[in-house]
């Protein structure tokens, strides 16, 4: 199963949740590949991964040391930080040799273990037309044409974020392969308002709806992945995914 985490905003909140989901699945004995294609590289930085897959390929090099195994969990850094990936993709468009290196090395990565789950951490406001999506997803589909693809959307409780997120969900679901899986309202300060926001975003397209309170230790987390706590809402979220159970999760 491939689960992409998407939202109008990136950064620590979305990446932390995606990483907690990946960690919880791996703790339960599943082999998980976490593909970090977020421009902030939060998970990769926590794992101490300095090299990125596309940066090395763009230089004409065989990619090395861009992933790390942490038990059943593998973290792979796909892009350099910030806007570097635009330059990297441009290089790959120019050179067929580099493209061949990219496709061969990517296949080696995703097939090096029999992964049960592929967790994708995306840049903010990513679309199906974004090059950061097109290249990686097209390679993935060639290798795993029948793999189930799902999306988890994240929003804060801010009114302006909610309205933009609604539009973003409609636009993405109209063109993206696979299905919507979950909607998460993150960093909620007022529980009742959080419930109202979730109700406004949650519809029949979603299996699971989750409200996550603001947790200071997670917002400022800079430790190791091994020390990252998995909060109860994420454990319940994983339960629902594994059972394919329709559920609303609060705190």
TrEMBL record:
The record's listing under Pfam families reads: CbiA
Mind telling me which InterPro entries this protein's record contains? CobQ/CobB/MinD/ParA_Nub-bd_dom, P-loop_NTPase
User: Which residues are in the CobQ/CobB/MinD/ParA nucleotide binding domain?
Assistant: 3-218
Report the protein name in the record. Answer: CobQ/CobB/MinD/ParA nucleotide binding domain-containing protein
Biological classification of the source: Archaea, Thermoproteota, Thermoprotei, Sulfolobales, Sulfolobaceae
| GN (gene name) | ST0985
């Amino acid at each position: 199963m491939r689960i992409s985490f998407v939202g109008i905003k990136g950064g620590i909140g979305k990446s932390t949740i995606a990483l907690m989901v990946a960690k919880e699945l791996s703790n339960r004995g599943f082999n998980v590949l976490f593909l970090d294609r977020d421009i902030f590289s939060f998970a990769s930085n926590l794992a101490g991964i300095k090299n990125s897959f596309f940066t090395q390929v763009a230089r004409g090099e065989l990619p090395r040391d861009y992933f790390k195994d942490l038990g059943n969990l593998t973290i792979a850094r796909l892009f350099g930080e910030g806007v570097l990936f635009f330059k990297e993709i441009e290089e790959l468009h120019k050179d067929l040799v580099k493209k061949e290196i990219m496709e061969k090395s990517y296949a080696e990565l995703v097939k090096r273990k029999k992964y049960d789950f592929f967790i994708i951490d995306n840049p903010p406001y990513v679309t199906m037309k974004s090059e950061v999506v097109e290249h990686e997803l097209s390679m993935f589909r060639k290798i795993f044409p029948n793999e189930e693809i799902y999306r988890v959307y994240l929003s804060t409780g801010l009114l302006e974020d909610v309205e933009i997120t609604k539009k973003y969900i409609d636009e993405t679901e109209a063109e993206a392969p696979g299905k919507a899986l979950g909607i998460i309202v993150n960093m909620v300060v007022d529980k009742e308002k959080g419930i109202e926001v979730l109700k406004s975003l949650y519809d029949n397209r979603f299996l699971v709806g989750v409200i996550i309170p603001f947790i200071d230790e997670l917002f400022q987390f800079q430790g190791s992945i091994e020390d990252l706590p998995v909060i109860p809402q994420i454990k319940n979220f994983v339960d629902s995914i594994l059972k394919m159970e329709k559920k609303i999760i609060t705190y």
